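Reopening this ticket.

The earlier resolution said the output was attached, but the attachment link was broken on my side. Pasting everything inline this time so it's all in one place.
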Amino acid sequence: MTTGVSITEQNRFIDVMIYSCADAARANNLPLAAMIACAVVESGYGTSKIYNATGVPFNLQKPSSYSHVHCDTVTFRTCVKTDAAGKCIGWAYASFCYAAGEHEFAWLRDAARIWCEWVLGWPNVTNRNNVLSWRNRPTDFARYLPFLGFGEFSKRTQNGESFVQALRKHALFERCMFE
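Inline output:
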């Protein structure tokens, strides 16, 4: 997770995410707490270059073959492989989903819709069904999100634990209960 983001900024990002994304999570029977944990880690509390350019805090690379996700895309040079220390050792150009909307709440609502489509339409049916089996357990759902393309696949255990740490650090399960 990004350091240098004040607790106040972290909490604002989380609160805006909860407010903007709750309806989509609820409508799709997906755990809001896991969605928010994913956004926190992937976007560095809304500070990442990709998030600021796309309005999608999940850094969703969308290959042209992904017909299950409906979003416009923008292309960026991005790190596709890191070493053990987290330093980028592989770069490529990739298309990323971007969200539509005239203001922050609108584009985050669209980003939540995109995240739900991503999860519910993931092309590897076995992985998708395994992750969806944890719908009622947000911590486990978050832990297994890397099996649906979140984070670097070769580091899926580490990435999953990052989502769990964010969920716990910010008491996301409790914060999201009342939405």
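Reporter confirms the inline version is readable. The chain has eight helices and two strands. The longest helix spans residues 7-27.
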